[in-house]
Amino acid sequence: MAGGLPHPVLLVDEAAKGVGLYKLNEVFHAQVIDSNVIYAWFAMVLLIILGMLATRKLAMVPSGLQNFFEVVVGGLESFVVENIGEKGRKVFPFLCALFLFIITGNLIGLVPGLDSPTNNVNTNAAMALTVFAYYNFWGIRMWGAGYIKHFMGPFWWLVPLMLPIEIISHLARPLSLTLRLFGNVRGEEIVLVLLFALAPVVGTFPMYFLFSLADCIQAFVFFMLAMIYLKGSLEHAH
Amino acid sequence: MLGKLIKDKAVRESIASASVVGLNLVSATFVGLLIGWWLDRWLGTSPWLLLTFLILGIAAGFKNMVLEVRKIQKADAEEHQEHGQDDAKP
Q1: Is pLDDT larger for residue A5 or for residue B43?
Q2: A142 burial level (CB within 10 Å; 0-12, 13-18, 19+)
Q3: Widest distance between CA atoms in chain B
Q4: With b meaning 16 or more CB within 10 Å and e meaning fewer, what string describes A22-52?
């Protein structure tokens, strides 16, 4: 279901029904496994297979898939190190996995017969809460009890005002991360379905270029914000 | 426009940071409202904590927005400076 509108055929859903993963629960009259989870697994399987293919024949002079992954991962790593500094190498695996998963999840939604795992609030909220827990974990690990200085603002006499404001703005981060990704991906799918109903193929084809670009930008925004939050907890409070 | 978006890294990054600004304001307001509502229900002090935390949430949203816009402006100024230097020595 894209945007609550009927979707013609969803291949992975049908396959999951075939192996019995998708049958209705008799007690709750709901699916045993939601389709966003199935598509998240699909994106994971896709990434694992691509990673295995890329690292099967490692060469000093990369070619093909290995070359592609080296460019992507190397570019992201230099971006992270440029922004956070050398400490960024410790958190880079998390950020890179996040980016690759989101971009795969966004882009498989554009393939006919597939759906995005990221068009569901639950997937995005899970990722945003993971980011929230992870950067706070790093903050506490780096600074111990002194991490609370990050929430206290610049002057000591502003602490009673700044503490609640900072706590609210930190709690708002996972909410805005979730809603931004969800709104963009779900909105794209609704537009695609509506345009397909109006003018099949002719109407949707040009939108594919725009939406594949928007999908990449949304994955990049999520990655960049996670990086900025990690940077904030890794560097010294000012 | 689209080609520039793909090629130019600075354009992509400024779009990414500009798309952050609006939603941060709204989500901080909502989180403040929710915390206030929940505390009111827990402590039975309706409606004072709700109003306090709503105002704090709005303040947090505006603080986030100001910081974000300041960062974008700083990046813009740096970029202009670099371009200016490029023009100076051909």
Answers
A1: B43
A2: middle
A3: 70
A4: beeeeeeeebeeebbbbbbebbeeebeeeee
Question: Of A141, A137, A167, which Cα lies nearest the Cα of A152?
Answer: A167
Instruction: Supply the range of the domain harboring residue B48.
Output: 41-72
* DSSP, res A118: G
- Which chain A residues are within 8 Å of B39, Cβ to Cβ? none
Chain B interface includes A165 (CB < 8 A): yes
In B, minimum Cα distance to A179 occurs at B23
> Domain for residue B49, yes or no?
yes
Tell me if B79 is assigned to some domain.
no
Is B66 inside a domain boundary? yes
pLDDT in tens, chain A (238 residues): 444 555 556 777 777 766 666 556 566 555 667 778 888 988 999 999 999 988 887 777 777 888 888 888 998 999 899 888 888 899 999 999 999 999 999 998 888 878 888 988 999 999 999 999 999 999 999 888 888 888 887 788 888 888 889 899 999 999 999 999 999 999 988 888 888 888 877 888 888 888 888 898 889 899 989 998 999 888 877 6
pLDDT at A2: 46
- What's the ipTM? 0.78
CB A3 within 8 A of CB A189: yes
Torsion of CA A22, A23, A27, A33, to 10 degrees: 0
Residue B48 included in any domain: yes
* Cis preceding-peptide flag for A154 (omega within 30 of 0): no
Tally of domains in chain B: 1
Q: Locate the domains of chain A by residue range.
A: 11-51+86-234
Copy the structure tokens of residue B2: 């689209």
Answer yes or no: do B35 and A168 touch at CB < 8 A. yes
